[in-house]
Amino acid sequence: MAELDDVMDSHSGMITRKQAMAILDAGAQTRGQDSPRQPPRAYTAAELLRLIGPSVDQPVAQESRANPAPSQMVDIEDTIYRVFNASGFTQANRKISRRLVVLGMEGAAISITLFDKLAELIDTNCFERGDTVLIKNAVMDATRGSLRSSSATRLIRLKPANTGITDFSAIAPGSSNIDVIGRAVEIYQIRYASKLSGNAQVPFSGCVLSDSSNAELHVSMWGSSALATASIKAGGVVKIEFCSSRLRNDRLDIAASDSSRVLVHGSLEQRLAKK
After folding, report:
1. Based on the domain organization, do 209 and 125 belong to the same domain?
2. CA dist., res. 229 & res. 251, Å (int)
């Protein structure tokens, strides 16, 4: 059956014939049997989650899962829900960059781990929270319910979001998961503090940002966000995603942690243009 072979080829042969038939049947129900067959399309995060089935943490027998093959190539088109700061590890004496990106929305999100050039591309090409993206040839690990990149993976921005608060007066104390854009007025030195439990050292730092009207805002940074201050230059424009606000000694502060993302990019300059 030519159509069945086409579906299997589109997934790089990494699904079974039974799974390919299920995809064909689902497509036929969507478009009607008399309509011409459309080429395989990209999944959304929600569709991939349904394809994977229940979480591996739930007590469901393996044979009861409607899972695809343990690993297969998929395309996904959705919005970026959040981006984490890049990290790195050493393997076979080679340093490898790694970054976690979450696609979809709260309650229907799936993560993809990007490695090496793709992990760096997220910053160098200024991919941001809210951007609509197409990721081609991502490797889906059904047992973990997540995606990872490979040498064949491609990342394409379909629609930029251009989000971020540039007027600090719009920030209310107690806000969470906000994105802030400002010009770096002052950058503090990275230091380390001991955790309350154990001997592990946690980096902390901070900076002072000014908005489009020159109002200033202090930013406290911990973990990977503190380490990211090494890339911030005085006078440069910075975006901090998924941060929170608080009152500290009657002063509004922003807090950024391992759950936040620090982005330094020249294209942010135009969003901070004075009104």
Report:
1. no
2. 22
State the Cα–Cα distance between residues 222 and 193, nearest whole angstrom: 10
150-172 confidence digits (pLDDT tens): 999 999 999 999 889 999 999 99
- Outline where DSSP puts E strands in the chain: 71-83, 87-91, 94-105, 108-115, 132-141, 146-148, 154-159, 178-187, 191-194, 201-210, 216-222, 237-248, 251-256, 261-264
Residue 40: the pLDDT is 61
Task: Identify whether the C-beta of residue 123 lies closer than 8 Å to the C-beta of residue 86.
Answer: yes
Together in a domain, 75 and 22: no
CATH of the domain at 91: 2.40.50.140
Indicate whether 271 pLDDT > 60: yes
Q: pTM for the full model?
A: 0.77
Strand partners, 33: none
- The verdict on 192 and 83 lying in the same domain is no
Name the residue range of residue 145's domain: 42-159
Both 114 and 186 in one domain: the answer is no
Last residue of a domain, one of 126, 159, 192: 159
Residue 46: count of CB within 10 angstroms of its CB: 15
**In 3D, which of 77, 50, 84, 85 has the Cα closest to residue 137?**
77
When divided into structural domains, the chain yields a total of: 3
pLDDT digits (tens, 9 = 90+) for 229-263: 999 999 999 999 999 999 988 899 999 999 999 99
